[in-house]
Structures are given as C-alpha cells and as structure tokens.
Amino acid sequence: MRDLRIPDQRHPEKAHRPDQEQPKKPAWIRVKAPTSEGYKRTRDIMKDNRLSTVCEEAGCPNVGECWSQGHATMMIMGEICTRGCTFCNVATGKPNALDVFEPGRVAHAVQKLGLKHVVITSVDRDDLDDGGADHFAQTIRAIRHRSPDSTIEVLVPDFLKSKPGSVEIVVEARPDVFNHNLETVPALYPTVRPGARYFHSLRLLQKVKELDPAMFTKSGIMVGLGEDRGSVLQVMDDMRAADIDFMTIGQYLQPTPKHHRVDRFVTPEEFAGYEKAAYGKGFLMVSATPLTRSSYHAGDDFARLRDARLRKLGRA
C-alpha cells in the first residue's frame, strides 16, 4: 500500500524530475503555524467524519486562519488525483472506488461546523465516466437537506475526458457558485497543467452561464510561474468574454523541490494593479493578493459578490 507521506510515493510522476531551487519567501508571504482551539476543532470534525480537505492535501498557507474560524474546503472523491500537474501537491495515481456515504458525511460536517457558506472541491477523476459529476450533485443535495440555509460553492475539475452532459449534472444540482480554475496563462499549460486544455476550461465556464445565466461563475490563476503582465491581462479578457463573474489571483508557492519552480514573487503592489485592471474589465468581484486562494474568505466574498450583482441591477 502506498504511503502518501513519502514524496516518491505521493508523486511518482515527479520522482525523477530534477530538483528545482526553492527561493526564500518574502515577508509578505510568511504565515504563522496553526495552533488555535478553533483550528483543532475543525481538524477533529474532519477526522471524525473521515473527510479530506484541499487545505491539507494541497498545503494551503491559509489553513491556520481559515480553520480557526471553522472554514474548511472539503475535497471529495478521495485524496488521489488522476492528473499530475506540476504545480500541485495533491497525490497522483489510481484512485479508490467512490464512497457512496461520503455526501452524507460532508453534509454532517457542514451542519456540525455551522457553515453559512461551504466550498466543495475534488481531485480529478478521469477514471469515472462522468468525472464525478453525479457525486458532486449528490453532495450538493445532501448539504441542502441538512443545512438548507447554507450557500454552496463547488470548485470542479475540467471534465475533459467525461461523457457529454457531465457539466449539466452539476449545474442542475444548483450550487450557488460554480468555480473552475484556469490556473495559469495558456502558454504555460504544457509545462504547468499538461493534462488540461485552456480553451476547454474556458468553454466549460461559458457553458455554465448558458445553462443557468443566474449562477455565479468563478475562476482563478496563480502568478509567479513565468507569465508576464500582458498574458495575465489577456486571461482577464478571455474570462470576461466567457461572462465569468469572479476572478482570483494568488502567488504560486512551490510545494517541494520536484514541483514547478517559482519564477518570482509578485509584489503586493503588482497584485493591487491586477485587481484594479480586473475591476476595470467588468468583473463583479476580484480577489488579488499574494495569499489569495480559490476558497480564501469565500463566504465573505460571496456576500460581496451577491451585493455587487444587486448594485449592477440597481436593486441595492
């Protein structure tokens, strides 16, 4: 049996890659180790319900802050991904069979944590005919049943190898926010996200709007992978052409020496410039800071997103 704590077993596809230098993090990136009672309570609830979180699996720097407030992004369909993106710390390999009781356990954890807004994500499951779309839908429905007042955000895979109709399955379950990350600029896809296709991901988000124009859509990228400002601005234009409501931009952090190198640390001032540019292009909501991640402050951001739409419609 694989031990996912051992790097070569966690990332067999990266085991023979040369080590990449890991530059020292600047002061604006450093965070304190998690120690609060709220963090421990959230950790215990996840453990008791046998749930995985992307916070742990992807090594998110915000885990201490978010978990101390009872906010955790639950990762369904196991902890082993069928893809091997060079930026990602989630384990790669052949996943286990789906757990049919997982949606109920997720719903129980959401209720126990008292979440007003919950984010559900997953590994890529290219081994499943629908890419796990029905499992997402079941999880959404289970949360609605146990916590009808909670708003739900899903961060889905690209369903690139799934049968037709997979996206529709998730949309029909009516999450409040449909999120799928483009991750980087198109020129870097062959080295950063080799199993994915930029325009397929963009089209997926556009299709959600066609299926349900009222559903909020969201996407994000990392910077510091080797892109330039012009290519980031082009991604903004592509997202707006697909009618995406909410864009996130955060600093890429290298999980291990075997992962894609950090090209540079983008300054807070540059992030502020990206935020200003994105709002100028018409996004309802933008989060652009070094520590921004897809689900960072997701609940507060959802409230602001909803208010922004009401203002745009003249109903505030």
Description:
- The protein is α/β, with parallel strands linked by helices and 316 residues long.
- Helix content is 37%, strand content 13%.
- The chain is built from twelve helices and ten strands.
- The protein has helices at residues 7-10, 37-48, 54-57, 63-68, 102-113, 133-146, 166-172, 189-192, 198-211, 229-241, 268-280, 298-312; strands at 52-53, 74-76, 80-81, 91-92, 117-122, 151-155, 177-179, 216-223, 246-251, 285-288.
- The protein has an eight-stranded mixed β-sheet with strand order 1-2-5-6-7-8-9-10, sandwiched between helices. A two-stranded parallel sheet has the order 3-4.
- Helix 5 runs parallel beside helix 6 and helix 6 (133-146) packs parallel to helix 7.
- The mean pLDDT is 89.
The Cα radius of gyration reads 18 Å
Q: Alpha-carbon distance between the termini?
A: 56 Å
Q: How is the largest sheet built, in terms of strand order? A: 1-2-5-6-7-8-9-10
Order of helices and strands: HHEHHEEEHEHEHEHHEHEHEH
Low-confidence stretches: none
Strand content: 5-15%
Name the helicity range.
25-40%
- SS-based class: alpha/beta
Largest sheet: 8 strands, mixed
Describe the global form: globular
Number of helices: 12
**Total strand segments:** 10
**What value does the average pLDDT take?**
89
Q: Would you spell out the secondary-structure blueprint of this structure?
A:
Elements: H1 7-10, H2 37-48, E1 52-53, H3 54-57, H4 63-68, E2 74-76, E3 80-81, E4 91-92, H5 102-113, E5 117-122, H6 133-146, E6 151-155, H7 166-172, E7 177-179, H8 189-192, H9 198-211, E8 216-223, H10 229-241, E9 246-251, H11 268-280, E10 285-288, H12 298-312
